[in-house]
Design goal:
The complex is a heterodimer of chains A (159) and B (318). By secondary structure, chain A is mostly helical. Chain A is 72% helix and 0% strand. In chain B, a hairpin with a 2-residue loop joins β1 (229-238) and β2 (241-250). Classes of the chains: A mainly alpha (159), B alpha+beta (318). Chains A and B meet through α1, α2, α4, α5 and α7 of A and α3, α4, α9 and β1 of B.
Chain lengths: 159, 318
């Protein structure tokens, strides 16, 4: 369990921030982090896992998020800001919340790559491994995502 | 490499300098150093990236998340161990079936609920095996503990013995109802967490309605249900329909209220206006179903099935 504790200590924060960027919901982000660790641990028990622990944790969280999108339980984008009044105690401050909302307004295609890029913990090659997409695609999505983000920020500022 | 190619590559260059030694960026950086306009763009880009990174890195993490994850990991670890035990038990004459294996059966007309030893522990914060965490008094910790009780304590394996099926029921429709009940039990069993674990019932209802799940149970539920402490709520998909799941702590026991849109199950409940209930005689786990006009309500909990039914009857559900 000591090994778990270190992994949780080291990575639950960036995982949560990544999950917030994906889902836009603090509730869902916390759930995603919890599920990512549990699923990761189960896979560890089964053995045969490749890649670094960190990459697998982020990758597991991302896949779980995709699963929720597929099941229609994802809340961001289509229903932004839901439940915010219920999670203010642990929720982001206004500035960070606005950023998350802006990130959440991006195309779902760009959001994961851009969030991982801004977390600065992973090179674009590692991002490619986490998202299971080609390196060139990551670079392209970061580039286009930034463009879209810039337009949205300008729109928010002008509006 | 021209300016635009370099710009494209440098957009993936992290602002904290972590990529400085990466040869993949070498050529693009050299183009930027020789191109004044591109160099200026890179400086501005890096400043903007740093600012966004800083904001994202400042998103506060719930202080209790770390412990919540550890609790979940420990619970799962224990669950994994007990799963091995249950396999051993299955080989013995009196052994039960693991939950997942049981749920994979296409026909689930007979369910048997076996309650693990933990079920004897009162269902309240601070008294479970992880009581130290619960004493922190945070709602979600209680809910996490509740979830662990559900996963570990409540349903290790099940086979709900028919105790009060009504004579004369059409076999096919009865089977469909049982499948519906079985699907709900399976979801309750699988639930490892609640999406919402704070606030009063009306807030939960509002949140569920926003998520297109049946939300209005407050006005219709009985005092017996509403008198319990709301532990959490979530929604899930059942046969393509969105269901609401509320968990109440009623006299120290977890009671689950599930609401389904009746219009999606008209064939299942057609002609069924009376509430029904069933109980596993071995374990005391019961399920009660109330087919209302707009919604179908189900209660799941470890109570005599008639008591569970009374929770419906003590108030006007519809």
């Amino acid at each position: 369990m000591m090994e778990f504790e270190e992994l949780v200590d080291d990575y639950h924060q960036p995982l949560y921030q990544f999950a917030c960027s994906l889902s836009g919901s603090t509730d869902q982000a916390a759930d995603l982090v919890e599920q990512a660790y549990v699923i990761w641990r189960r896979q560890e028990r089964e053995g045969g896992q490749k890649g670094s622990v960190v990459t697998r944790l982020f990758s597991t969280l991302y896949r779980e998020y995709l699963g929720q999108v597929g099941r229609g339980t994802e809340s961001f984008g289509s229903r932004p800001g839901e439940g915010d009044d219920l999670v203010t105690a642990a929720g982001p401050e206004r500035g960070e919340h606005q950023l998350i909302e802006v990130l959440g307004g991006l195309d779902r295609t760009y959001r994961p790559s851009l969030a991982l890029f801004y977390l600065q913990r992973h090179s674009y090659k590692e991002i490619a491994a986490i998202l299971d997409i080609p390196i060139g695609t990551v670079m392209s999505r970061i580039s286009r995502g930034k463009e879209q983000l810039r337009k949205r920020v300008h729109k928010e500022t002008d509006g | 490499m021209d300016r635009e190619q370099a710009r494209f590559i440098l957009r993936s260059f992290r602002p904290d300098g972590a990529d400085s030694g990466n040869p993949d960026f070498e050529e693009a950086l050299s183009v930027a150093s020789a191109d004044e306009e591109l160099g200026a763009w890179l400086v501005a880009e890096q400043a903007q990236d740093a600012s966004i990174s800083s904001a994202l890195g400042s998103v506060p993490v719930p202080g209790a998340l770390r412990d919540r994850v550890l609790v979940a990991l420990r619970a799962d670890e224990d669950s994994g161990n007990s799963g091995e035990n249950s396999v051993e038990e299955e080989r013995a004459p009196s052994g039960g079936q693991p939950v997942e294996a049981a749920m994979e059966k296409s026909e689930m007309t007979v369910l048997k609920v076996e309650i693990a030893g933990q079920m004897g522990v009162p269902f309240s914060a601070g008294q479970g095996p992880d009581g130290e965490l619960a004493r922190e008094g945070e709602c979600w910790v209680r809910s996490a503990l509740a979830a662990i009780f559900l996963v570990l304590g409540a349903f290790v394996a099940f086979e709900l013995t028919v105790s009060s099926s009504r004579p004369g029921e059409e076999e096919g429709q009865d089977s469909a109802l049982k499948d519906l009940e079985g699907g709900v039990i399976a979801e309750v069993t699988r639930a490892g967490f609640f999406s919402l674990e704070v606030g009063d019932l009306r807030k939960h209802e509002g949140w569920l309605r926003k998520n297109f799940a049946p939300g209005s149970v407050h006005a219709g539920s009985s005092p017996g249900i509403l008198g319990g402490r709301l532990v959490g709520s979530r929604f899930f998909e059942l046969e393509g329909s969105r269901a609401s799941h509320f968990c109440f702590d009623i006299n120290g026991k977890p009671i689950h209220l599930i609401a389904l849109p009746a219009e999606d199950f008209t064939e299942v409940i057609s002609g069924k206006e009376e509430p029904r209930s069933r109980q596993c005689l071995d374990t005391g786990m019961s399920v009660a179903l109330w087919p209302g006009q707009d919604r179908i309500f189900l209660l799941v909990g470890k109570l005599p099935d008639q008591e569970l039914l009374e929770l419906f009857k003590s108030g006007v559900v519809e």
